[in-house]
Amino acid sequence: MTPLALFAYNRPEAFRRTLEALAENPQAPQTPVYIFVDGPRSPADASKVAQTRRVAREARGFASVTLRFSEQNKGLAESIISGVTEVLEGADAVIVLEDDLRVHPSFLSYMNAALQEYRDKPSVFSVCGYTNRIRIPAGYPYDAHFCTRSSSWGWGTWKDRWEKVDWAPTRSELFRHWFGFRRWGGSDCSKMLLGCLRGRNHSWAIRFCFAEYLTGGLSLFPNRSLVDNSGSFSGDGTNCRKFSRFRFEWEPEAHRTYRFPPEGLTDPRIIRRSLWYHSLPLRLYSRIMYLFYD
Fold it and tell me: How is the chain split into domains, by residue range?
């Protein structure tokens, strides 16, 4: 089974729920799990971080559990970059979760099957477990679809694709691809990456997406979500707030197998509907709603 890297910080109860849901997957007993818990950002975080580490030590139901506790606060981006890189030193693929996500009982089955299906198909850059609620066209014959933009809510990739990511792209490189990157992934892409380059955010995910764009890659998504991301918007997450413009439809079958599309087969209608969640009108609406939910 593909190893799984699980990242946590200072939310012990959310982390416990993530572990419990993950352990309900039939493939959990065959899955090696690596748990990374970041160091406290300040003395005020120390107690919650310690509680989170106790939860990590109690993790059961997996093939193995490897603990990595950082003494210093790395921040989410550096934690994920260094942690995923470490796991991939001994594996050719990895599944990645954070401590505010609840996974479906079919999550591991889907992820492992997809990572195997597209292992030798380099145009597939990542496999994602979360899916926005979109209308799948009538007659679409597959249980998953490709989109041009990856998602950080429960995902996986391969070592050879991870090694293609430049974690320190230059502004000049971004500006050469500014308009293409916006069209490829949504109007917020270039703004997010520029903010990262200027130090206004530390998103690892937008740098991953930029590498996906530069290589002409695609990401696979299930037609119905296998990840519940509502914990990301509880108000205590690292990068998210209480209101979310994202909506998902939970996979209704407890366990199922998947029919995957051939490599590179895209449906423009599905891509258009997926990228609508990143459109300027919806993002403006979200900003207004933040005023009422903060």
Answer: 1-99
In eight-state DSSP terms, residue 28 is G
Structure confidence at residue 244 as a pLDDT band (50, 70, 90) = low
Percent of the chain surpassing pLDDT 90:
78
Q: Residue 5 corresponds to which tokens in the numbers above?
A: 């890297």
- Residue 288: Cβ-neighbour burial (10 angstroms; 0-12, 13-18, 19+): exposed
Q: How confident is the model at residue 72 (pLDDT cuts 50, 70, 90)?
A: very high
CB 106 within 8 A of CB 72: no
- Tokens in use for 116? 């195997």
Q: Is 177 in a helix, a strand, or coil?
A: coil
Domain 1-99 has CATH 1.10.3720.10: no
DSSP state of 290: H
Q: How confident is the model at residue 280 (pLDDT cuts 50, 70, 90)?
A: low
Q: Which residues contact 120 (CB under 8 A, 6 or more apart)?
A: none
Alpha-carbon distance of 162 to 211, in angstroms, equals 9
Take residue 229 and report the two structure tokens written for it.
Answer: 């991301």
Report pTM. Answer: 0.90
- Orientation angle between helical segments 189-197 and 178-185, nearest 10 degrees: 130
DSSP bridge pairs for 126: 219
Q: Cα(132)–Cα(225) distance, rounded to whole angstroms?
A: 7
Sheet bearing 218-222, strands edge to edge: 64-69, 32-37, 4-8, 93-98, 155-158, 124-128, 218-222, 144-147
Q: Which residues contact 88 (CB under 8 A, 6 or more apart)?
A: 94, 159, 162
- Give the DSSP H/E element, type plus range, for residue 205: helix 204-214
Asked if residues 15 and 56 have their Cβ atoms less than 8 Å apart, the reply is yes
